[in-house]
Design a protein that fits this description.
The structure is a single chain. About 5% of the residues lie in helices and about 55% in strands. The protein contains 1 helix and 36 strands. β11 and β12 form a beta hairpin. The radius of gyration is 29 Å and the shape is elongated. The chain starts with a helix and ends with a strand.
Length: about 450
């Protein structure tokens, strides 16, 4: 009996240790919010996300200039730097990079107008700026050159025009720009801006009330963090639901910048499998925090990387997750793959496949059924050639009359895909025939395709 009790106690203690370790591993990643002050003390503060406890506070400095304040700060998730707009006299506003923990800025160049807000999108690889009321053209959206600070007009003026300033923040989930503008009654209206059509749509806010918004940044999962001129902090959903988060901030916090202190996904495996000209990629995560998704990137023979697909992540979960993607119809050659895991606020991390994928030479001739089939007006045809030689693919009608030469050239041994566009043909049944000759071998095959318009 004593032995059973001892064994049970040992197992209980071991289980507690496992649970403690597991809970420690799954502790949510912390994040920081960065804001600047417009007034004479010109501070840049780093706050703890959610509590707004000050982690660091430093005066902004820029060599060769006297800084009198700042109007905005944002995080560039591509080059992993904070950018800020400083007031430095004449010219009034300059774009800089800044280290929040020290306040030291590096000059980029004059912006030309008095911009009140900036935000960065890694989706479009663009920094955007919104002009304030004091500029010649208020409530106008620009893109910003990160090498010179120069701005290029995009659209505006928009319907929502602020009494004091404008605030914009990019939403990574829906690809829309969000815009807040203050009015003489100290309220702040909210809208979205479509970055393709530049159509503005107002969103009616609900919940807690706030004065004019001074800073905002997208946190992920449909939620913004925002500050107002009453020195308070809020969360605002994409649908406009407002909730008070903190009061009595140390100053009118403008900006904002937001960055996860830790990367949010723990990848446990990343493997590949080859079947003919197809590569299947499989990967698994132990847990995820704020995971927007994965870009799948490929390079051939160590050349430049290109994105081939995007898979949506599971947001935040403590459960293991499995992902799979099939890269189809590759030609013979050597390939490398990597995953770009992207957080909701644009932060990202790369995971490289450890092995090189080698697509070899097929062992036999093959002509596949076109896909889609039926089709309108384009379809694809896959074929495998085990020897170098002349390849011909010809299209015929039901009477056997030759209509079109789809392929007619010398090909190296390998896996191939060709696309055929039948825009000039009427609906009906057609046949395509492959003939391949090389190294004393000859192959002929015919398949039927159906065009439906």
């Amino acid at each position: 009996m004593k032995k059973i009790y001892s064994d049970f106690r040992f197992l209980f203690i071991a289980l507690l240790m496992v649970l403690f370790t597991f809970s420690f591993m799954l502790k949510p990643a912390t994040a920081d919010v960065v804001g600047v002050q417009k007034n004479a003390t010109h501070l840049i503060n780093v706050f703890a996300d959610g509590t707004w406890t000050t982690i660091s506070s430093n005066p902004l400095t820029l060599s060769g200039f006297t800084v009198s304040g700042a109007t905005a700060v944002t995080w560039n998730s591509d080059d992993l730097q904070f950018y800020a707009v400083l007031n430095v006299g004449s010219p009034n506003r300059r774009l800089v990079t800044v280290i929040p923990s020290t306040g030291v800025c590096t000059d980029i160049g004059p912006m030309g107008q008095q911009f009140s807000s900036i935000t960065y999108s890694s989706t479009t690889s663009t920094m955007y700026a919104m002009s304030g009321l004091e500029t010649p053209t208020p409530s106008t959206l620009y893109s910003v050159n990160l090498l010179t600070g120069a701005t290029t007009y995009l659209a505006g003026p928009f319907t929502l025009i602020a009494d004091q300033g404008e605030v914009i923040a990019y939403n990574y989930d829906n690809g829309l720009m969000y815009h807040w503008a203050g009015f003489p009654d100290s309220s702040a209206r909210m809208s979205t801006i479509n970055l393709t059509t530049f159509v503005e749509t107002e969103i009616i806010q609900s919940g807690a009330s706030h004065s004019e918004i001074s800073g905002a940044v997208y946190q992920g999962a449909g939620r913004f963090i925002a500050t107002d001129l009453s020195n308070s902090a809020f969360t605002i959903t994409s649908a406009g639901v407002v909730a008070l988060q903190a009061t009595l901030l140390p100053f009118q916090v403008k900006g904002l910048g937001y960055v996860d202190a830790l990367l949010p996904v723990e990848l446990t495996s990343f493997t590949s499998a080859i079947s003919g000209g197809n590569v299947t990629l499989n990967w698994a995560t132990a847990s995820e925090t704020n995971n927007s998704g994965f870009d799948i990137e490929r390079s051939k023979s160590n050349q430049s990387w290109s994105k081939i697909a995007t898979l949506t992540g599971n947001g935040t979960t403590i459960l293991p997750s499995n992902y799979s993607f099939v890269d189809r119809n590759l030609n013979s050659g050597n390939y490398n793959y990597r995953l770009k895991q992207i957080d909701f606020n644009g932060n990202f991390e790369y995971f490289n496949l450890s092995n090189e994928v080698v697509i070899g030479i097929p062992s036999k001739f093959k002509l596949s059924q076109n896909y889609p089939n039926p089709f309108n007006p384009s379809t694809k045809i896959n074929y495998d050639i085990p020897f170098d030689g002349k390849v011909s693919i010809v299209l015929f009608d039901v009477s056997g009359r030759e209509l079109h030469s789809i392929v007619n050239e010398v090909k190296s041994a390998g896996y191939y895909t060709t696309e055929f566009n039948a825009a000039g043909l009427p609906s009906g049944v057609y046949f395509y025939r492959i003939t391949s000759e090389g190294s004393g071998n000859k192959f002929t095959a015919t398949r039927k395709m159906i065009l439906l318009k």
